[in-house]
Amino acid sequence: MALTVSGLSYGYAGGKLLYRDASFRVEAGAVVGITGPSGSGKSTLGALLAGDLRARSGEITIDGAPLPRRGFRPVQLIHQHPERAVNNKWRMRSVLRESHEVPQETLDLLGIRSEWLDRWPAELSGGELQRFCIARALHPATRYLVADEMTAMFDAITQAQIWHALSGIVRERGLGMVVISHEPALLDRLCDEQIAVESFRD
Amino acid sequence: MSTATDHRPRLRARRDVVVSLSTVVLLVTCVVAGHLFLDDTALRPNSALRLLPPSIGHPFGTDHLGRDLFTRVVKGLALSLGIGVLTAAISTVISAVLGICAALLGRRVDGVISWLIDLSIGIPHLIFMILLAFTVGGGIPGIVLGIAFTHWMSLALLVRADVKQIRDAEFILVARGLGRSSLFIACRHVLPLVLPQLLVGFVLMFPHVILHEAALTFLGFGFSPQTPAIGILLSEGMPHISSGMWWLAVLPGLALLLLVLGFARLGDRVRTVLDPATSNG
After folding, report:
1. A57 in Cβ contact with A7 (< 8 Å)
2. Is residue B153 part of a domain?
3. How many domains does chain B have?
4. Nearest chain A Cα to B181, which residue?
5. Beta carbons of A136 and B173 less than 8 Å apart
6. Across the interface, which of A73, A86, A89 has its CB nearest the CB of B177?
7. What are the residues facing A196 on neighbouring strands?
């Protein structure tokens, strides 16, 4: 039971390859950190894992099966900017429902108050919105989470609250998690293992 | 310096919308009320009343068969309004469906639809319209389909460009990752965002339809001569202009102009208010 990447290569049109023959695995229940300076391809790797981008060559498999092209993807990506990841013309209740009926217990764990459900995205702070994005990604069929600089925009207290809540849920459900960040302190605290994106370069 | 100054152009644009909207509503109300309440006996030929100039009893005068011209103009405009709504609605739907499909369903679909758009723009539209109307057999279906099928391209291009800008937005990527279909994304995410564009397209389409309906009818490919359509009135009135009976062509023409300008102005003003790029000016 693992999210495995083998022989992955990817580069943007007209540019050098970001990774050549990258391979690693994320066991279910494990937390793996991806580090690297800005522009080194951390977010691109997240998009590849989530299936938003398709690799030039190489293979990504989930518990032995290839990434599904259609339908629900068991690898869910949580973006850095929650305000871009929700449609600002939808109320928060609909934003959650696009994924599934999120149980009250999950809402409580993430600190989502019931009065927020009837608000528009513009009426919530970034930290509050990000909690909704996390709740949305925690679909019952989700096996792995990719958190791409998920809390980089928030103050220390909000960061701590969000990570505390999410780590608990991830551990309880036995999900695998990839944490993309350039903050060593955060990665040291959360991850069982850390991989530097530069190591995929050659 | 003050923020109050910055809002003035926007406020003026909004006031313009209200003014042109009231004009259009007033005109439409008059036409619809006239259509419902004007006496049909005024449309019967009466040889005693032939070719009378405008007067209190006959505000627009009478035609060569002694029919009251004002009644005929009102009935004609009512017909034009109905056809305008129907045709503009059909062409807006075509534009929306093709524009969204082109932007959302991948490169191959985009290629086919773009080719269709280029092809349709390439054919001289008046000829295409006449051919279509002629094939369907004239009358209301001929006019509606002829105009609708030749006037969807520019709005489809606008919609396609708008959707291309948002199709890679993160919230749409998230929706795909959650297993949502392209149909769901088109209806729930994309359509609400292009709705203002469609609304403006619909209103601006409207005067176009009315003019083309009059043109098609004037050229003999639209309504049969018994129908009190504006195009028929104009083509009947034209020969009489040279003999001094100006009201037969001028007054129906002016009435048509008023309605068309009202709608064109409304569409223009609505676009100014809805489009942030122009409303800042």
Report:
1. yes
2. yes
3. 1
4. A71
5. no
6. A73
7. A35
ipTM attached to this prediction: 0.91
Element (H, E) at A21: strand A19-27
pTM of the predicted protein model: 0.81
Residue contact B192–A86, C-beta within 8 A: no
Which tokens belong to B178?
Answer: 């959650």
Task: Identify the three-state secondary structure at position B226.
Answer: coil
A2-200 belongs to CATH 3.90.800.10: no
Give the span between the Cα atoms of B130 and B202, in whole angstroms: 22
Measure in Å the smallest separation between the Cα of B176 and chain A Cα atoms: 8
The C-alpha angle B1, B5, B10, rounded to 5 degrees, equals 140
Q: What CATH number is given to the structural domain containing B95?
A: 1.10.3720.10
Domain range list for chain A: 2-200
Residue B174 sits at the chain A interface (C-beta within 8 Å): yes
Residue B226: is its pLDDT beyond 80? no
HSE at residue B158, side-chain half, CA atoms within 13 A, is 20
Where in the sequence is the domain holding B78, given as residue range(s)? 8-279
Report for A17-26, B32-41, B108-117, B268-277: range of highest mean pLDDT: B108-117
Q: What are phi and psi of B168, to 5 degrees?
A: -105, 15
Q: In angstroms, how far is CA A153 from the centroid of its own chain?
A: 15
A-B contacts at Cβ under 8 angstroms: 41
Q: What is the pLDDT of residues B128-141, one digit of tens each?
A: 888 888 888 878 88
